[in-house]
Request: fold
Amino acid sequence: MTRSKRIHTWLKITVVLLIIGVFALSALSFFFPKKRLSTEYSNGKETFTLEIINQGQVIEAEEKAIPVEVMRVQLSSTPDVVYLPSIIEANVDAMLSAEKGGRIVEIHVDRGDTVSKKQLLLQVDDRVWQANLKQASVAEENAARDFERIEKLIRSGAASQSDVDQADKFRIQTASVAEEARISIEQCQVKSPIDGVINDRFVEIGEYVQPGTPLFQVIDRATVRVVLQVPEKDVYAVKPGNRMRFTIAPLPDHSFEGEVTFVAAQADSRNNAFRTEITVDNRDGLLRPGMIAQVEFNRGTQENMVSLPMSAVLPSKGDHIVYVAKNDQAVRRRVQIEKLSAQNALISAGLEEGDQVIIEGNRKLTDGQHIIIIDMESSVQ
Reply:
């Protein structure tokens, strides 16, 4: 058999085998139809129903609806309240310094002691001034007697007016020297200028001090000042006489109140804000200088605002989003947050009256996700 005949024979055999194979597959399909299996699986976020043919190929995946809870939006006016940080200061903060130089011979108080006005705190050695006072007092008495004697002599013509004037001048001089000695003795005694507390003491007994040496810091805690910086845009909303409330971190459930007693006439060049002081009665001693306070500042009202639970708001690439239920789908909306609190977010833009905001089940959603509403809470404002 020639080579060309052999090739022709193999081609015929191949064609016949192909035809037989096609008929065989058709018969198998007729007598053994493909079986379709149905199952469900979850990827951790959504649940899917799959239909699988007997060869293992996925031919259909049907997404199931995600159950969600929603709240209907109702726009409303909301009080525009902000909290401004502030610091508490003592109403009187006195730094006491030595007026006379000398050695400290007595210290009667220490840090934390409560003192009253004019109470003796410290004694500087005053023996030199005591000696000067004795000498000046004797001279003062002698000068006074001489003046009286010369006044009597002038009536009898035994003394001139010039003698009287000179005696009077000497009397005044000796009295001044004696008074200076008395003042110096008083200045050796350091007394409290106020009712208050010794916040600090800077010297020890036996030290030698010069005039101007710091001795004590005395503060008045019975009345304190809450000092805050009011922004330029809000300065006209606060005036002396206004009552303002504030809180402190150690007592978050306790609200304090005081009266605005000072608003700066000029803004601070560093922050363009106006120093404002609130005077507060602190006889119970709860407020301490140096504490940070949060002052409640009411700016008025804000229109068309929505308050949402924090669970409804999700972060997304630097923005904030919510999901709105529409036509059985979750629609992604970017919103603008005006203010945040521990439980709520105040929304100023991105939502409309009547929107159904998804508040539960939203963390599983994507834009356009099929949803089913299982609960609707009261309208949110």
